Amino acid sequence: MMKMHRTTIIASVLVPLLFAAAPRAHAQTGINSTVEVERDYEGSIARAVKYPVDAPVEDSLLNFKLDFDYTTFYSPYKDLYEFAPMMTLGPASEGRTVYPWLYAVLAAAWPLTPSAELAVTPRLGDRFSLGFYAAHDSFWGNVPQVGTAGAGGRPVLTGETVSGDRMKNRAGAAFGYRWRKGELKLGASYSGSMYALAPVEDFSSYRALNTFDHLRAGLSVRSANPDSDAFYYDLNVDYRYFNDRQYIAEHLADAEVSLGATVRREHKIYLRFAGTFSDYGVWKISPMYRWAGDRWRIKAGVTFSSAYGGRISDGNQGIISSSNRFLIHPDASVTFEAARNALWLYMKAYGDNRLYTLYELFSINPWMDHSDIPHLSSTPIAAELGLRGQVRDRFSYSVGANYSYVRNMLAFMSMQQGQSVYQSPAGGVSHVFTASGALRWKSRDFLASAEFSYRAFSDPDAALMMPAFDLNAVLEYNLRQRLFIRADCYFRTSAVGEYFGAGASVPVRYDVPAFVDLGLRISYAFNMHVTAFVEGNNLANNKIQYFLNYLEPGINIGAGICLRF
Q1: pLDDT, tens digit, for every residue of 439-487?
Q2: Three-state SS for 366?
Q3: What is the phi/psi pair of residue 165, to 5°?
Q4: DSSP code for 543
Q5: 495-500/411-417 β-pairing
Q6: Bridge-partner residues for 518, per DSSP?
Q7: What is the pTM of this model?
Q8: How far apart are CA 259 and CA 242, in angstroms?
Q9: Residues 118, 317: Cα–Cα separation, whole Å
Q10: pLDDT tens profile 508-542
Q11: Is 324 helix (H, G, I), strand (E, B) or coil?
Q12: What are the distances in angstroms from CA 329 to CA 284, 301, 405?
């Protein structure tokens, strides 16, 4: 079943699939069909503050790490990228992951929300891996129309309903070969999407669609030499293609190369080159030094980055300003283990150029206009400090504070074009202060977690549709690993949106109300191979707007079945 809260973000995720080599048989207790992960790594505990606008999760089949419990979620791709420890002082071992050779889900909800997933992973021995997947997610129904003529600076419901149809079909394949000191991966994926555009108030019966395609193919070669003094290399090359089936066709080449070496075990030196290349793009070069002592971890480096091409928007009609053409950013951090295996303190300074290609903009916001202008956001300097701790492998916590200076922050405004409402990138310069924290408790039978972020912007106009505060909480109980009851709640405070109507000289500002998105899922595992579930989303039936004029569907309740072999 398609999770409808934050659908416009989650629906941009092109479901990835990568299957590590060498599945092995292991005894299991009870009915727990947990994916088994063996990994030897030295994870960095420096946590990055989540950017207020969710970046798209790319459909790369090349580089991700997975730590997933099938008994907790019915989809093996849920939260796929949440576990991704920073590359450490040497080449970390990716480990060996045991997957089912066949995974299938069939589900439906009302209003009509069908979904299906199929993944097949033939087991080819210790060195080879191969996987195929296909998936469908859609919603077919109406949503209330949001008007922009409300008094008091608040958007209002017009009393009409309009089409909220949306659909994403995706498929992909991945191949891997691993030898004693390295590995090679090949992957390709495709996604075709359709989203109904919101009509303006006077044309509630008008129907128009945004339809587009994403295609990606990639190659990765990396070292996996376990020797502490080994030379390290990691090469990734991608080709991406985007087409909005109307005016835009974008071809992109991505490259990332990391080379490094160890000196006397604790000293690591490496050089990273990365870039996105088309008739516009960004390249980055980062020399880096790392040192690991008994309780200390120190990273010292710098990033040289330059953007090129006349189509990138920095708020000046698609022209890169001289201040953004070449930037030097710090990249440094210090971590101290204050209590053995229990408490870590950290601070870091960094910066970056962030290029949002058309490929990515339509992934983040599928109701984009067709202006054919990428978006370049720059963070000349950011600083962060915080702590993270754990207690007896059951309870963990973190708290941090962050300051960032951001140029051309990515945000979105609504604008009328003909009879439809489109979304367009908007942003400005702002100082951003963020406080965030997380709590997590996990035992065999119970899971509880909560994450919060509070943000203050020196220029609220640069942060349209971004709430000052949001909270994400999860509670889950399982009875003997057969019956699972999970409740999740996402809350965010009000945000400011802007609408630019036809013939208007200036946009109109609106206060978009706060909302809560409440979901509940009950799953029952009949055996290790068959699980059935029922699920409800947006149970509070809130009027959820992540983008002005676009309401998410209301209450939807459905059921499904999951097969694993």
Answers
A1: 999 998 999 999 999 999 999 889 999 999 999 999 999 998 899 999 9
A2: coil
A3: -60, 140
A4: -
A5: parallel
A6: 489
A7: 0.82
A8: 30
A9: 44
A10: 888 999 999 999 999 999 988 999 999 999 999 99
A11: helix
A12: 10, 9, 12
